[in-house]
Amino acid sequence: MSVSDAPAAVDEARLWRRHMSLAEIGATAKGGVDRQALSEEEARARALLAEWASELGYAVSVDGISNLFIRREGTDPALAPVLTGSHIDSQPTGGKFDGAYGVLAGIEALQALDEAGIETARPIETVAWLNEEGSRFAPGMMGSEAFAGLRPFDEIAAVADRGGTSVADDLPRAFAATPGAERRGIGFPVAAFVEAHIEQGPALERAGIPIGVVTGIQGVRRMRVRVTGEEAHAGTTPKSARRDALWEAARMVDALQRRIHRDDEHRFTVGMMEIRPNVPSVVAAEVLFSIDIRHPDSDTLARLEAEVDGICRNSLVACDVETWTIAQAPSIWFDDGVVDTIESAAVDLELGNMRLFSGAGHDARQLSFVCPTGMIFVPCEKGISHNEAENASPADLADGARVLAETLVRLANG
Amino acid sequence: MSVSDAPAAVDEARLWRRHMSLAEIGATAKGGVDRQALSEEEARARALLAEWASELGYAVSVDGISNLFIRREGTDPALAPVLTGSHIDSQPTGGKFDGAYGVLAGIEALQALDEAGIETARPIETVAWLNEEGSRFAPGMMGSEAFAGLRPFDEIAAVADRGGTSVADDLPRAFAATPGAERRGIGFPVAAFVEAHIEQGPALERAGIPIGVVTGIQGVRRMRVRVTGEEAHAGTTPKSARRDALWEAARMVDALQRRIHRDDEHRFTVGMMEIRPNVPSVVAAEVLFSIDIRHPDSDTLARLEAEVDGICRNSLVACDVETWTIAQAPSIWFDDGVVDTIESAAVDLELGNMRLFSGAGHDARQLSFVCPTGMIFVPCEKGISHNEAENASPADLADGARVLAETLVRLANG
């Protein structure tokens, strides 16, 4: 199939400059980004996106959960748009590209279509979904979950951060960031969704291949474990009288790692632990810790989830334990039509490509329940992500944007 | 030996009322106290002590590190005073009696001497030492260490809490709490120091004995362990590529508990753990945890301290580890003369008593390096301390204050 003029209009230097400008907002000393959902920094990033959109003549809108949309009109404005995008929130010690790339590649693609003089029947919208990361308000994927009707607005609005501030409390900050934006309801018909993202793993770099055609997203279980012991004085309380929640939690973490994190196919992480009172001279009364389990096979995942409680109980000495699941998602497979369109675009652009299954969760999971969906991955340095050292090459980012631009043209005219 | 009229003047109800009044400052929902060093709450507690002292006609003074002194004059003001007291700061989820008892028993003893019409040759001063607990500014015992010349003022002043506020930043708040207090230099000659305290262990209650005559304080090592790994994405990073600081710290905590916390004679606690970035979907890059080891035998303690580094290294998988000691104290034995005086007072008052070695550290340790020192313990419910449920009986508290009053009379006239 012949390629449109859009990919050739993608400007590598311009795309890189926008990444560096966005990364200044919430920049950390170590070269990363701290731009958590609904923070001051995230609001400033929203304002910058809206400023770019206005300069390019695109309409900006926000829905009731503060998902931000930038629209390039189609020749038939009544048709459902093709959507692209990702998120601009980050982990507290996140990188410059996770999420941001999908939004900036989306803007770059719209601009490339303009410069190539291409009209599409369908409108194309680039979206920044609210709170993909979930580090401040857990669990994440809030914007895409609300959009896809997978989670009620009121439930999301009530989620509070560790300081007790709720999503509802801070939503006004997001709306205030784009005062000129049209307000929309949550959720509308979409013809297709394509999300560009850094791989966040080592496969593309190791293979020396610039384009990943993503076939699906591996399932995940997010759990919490609460170990309850009793506060006691470190100097006077004998071992036999202790109920040490921190020690018993440590036993559980080690046992879970040994029993569940069997090999490289299993992904098991305890990344968060909150200890009370968390002072050196007091035996801990309570520990709450997180569990994140992922596996491509949904049955295996369900079996691993079921093992957690027993492993924790077997690690008990004198405390009590409680385990529960806060979020679960089966593995999903993307739409064949969208996956094939992305693959054909890469092939026609003569860019090396391979099919991949995503280890990380993305907003595309939620969209896959309401419209044909796919993802484009580009390599990131050493596969490092959720880390201030996260990096990607300008050339790889531009290649991904070229595949995205061509994919959008085909979907919006298809 | 005949008993003075002071013990009979000790007023159980008054002493209990003062405990309940002081406990209102920083009161927690669960009946405990959060009154950390140099906080707003601790400043209000200082103001209340000064108010009581003024009502009773005692002079109030503060030294350069904000130790607070309440002085009952002697017939020879030039003689070095006998000192009693403890501390009014608490753990973040502390109880009503830890520290507070020693200060309030001291005030009660002074008032009992007044009411009994007893004059003493030496002045008697009741002191509240700065920051015994060390939960906010670590390590604790700051006031008594400065007083005893064991730690330079500048080093203490520079210690910062987790929010970056230093002792020097917050000292003005303590001084402002007692505007009428005379300012004094740090450290002066003391004839003897006697500290009354709840036992914080179960021995007196189990034995049904109201008075503990403390013979010494067991040694302690306070250490820190830093485990350094690498931040990585929980969904995409295979086990073989991870350097998970939280998992490896958990392995260390469990190994240390099994190897060092051998039996009830050994006291080993990991009570504090700080994890970075501490979010569910990110493999932890760094964990810092505390170690508190205590044992009556100083050689054993030194041997246990020396084992820590090797045990941590043996638990490593892919991270790095660093261990260091932040505070060390050998076991100490109190002055025979003071211990005998306390014991005789209890015997002469016909109060059941037993000799005890203290598992917890106290300001009396520091004072023991500069003057003859001893301690009086009273039972606390189930031995529970450093806990909001900490409790003691009004009768036991009053009995301790009676022994204290008589001991002070004997030391101040001795």
SSE layout and pairing:
2 copies of one chain form a homodimer.
Chain A: H1 6-9, H2 12-23, H3 40-55, E1 59-63, E2 68-72, E3 82-87, H4 100-115, E4 124-129, H5 142-147, H6 153-158, H7 167-177, E5 182-184, E6 192-198, H8 203-207, E7 211-217, E8 219-228, E9 232-233, H9 245-260, E10 267-269, E11 273-276, E12 282-283, E13 286-295, H10 298-314, E14 320-329, E15 332-333, H11 336-348, E16 353-358, H12 363-367, E17 373-378, H13 394-413
Write a structural description:
2 copies of one chain form a homodimer. Helix content of chain A is 36%, strand content 23%. By secondary structure, chain A is an alpha/beta fold. Chain A has 2 domains: 6-218 and 331-413, Zn peptidases (Aminopeptidase); 219-329, Alpha-Beta Plaits (2-Layer Sandwich). In chain A, the strands form 3 sheets. In chain A, strands 1, 2, 3, 4, 5, 6, 7, 15, 16 and 17 form a 10-stranded mixed sheet that branches. In chain A, strands 8, 10, 11, 13 and 14 form a 5-stranded antiparallel sheet that branches. In chain A, a hairpin with a 4-residue loop joins strand 1 and strand 2. In chain A, helix 3 packs parallel to helix 7 (167-177) and helix 4 packs across helix 13 (394-413). At the A-B interface, strand 9, helix 9, strand 10, strand 11 and strand 12 of A face strand 9, helix 9, strand 10, strand 11 and strand 12 of B.
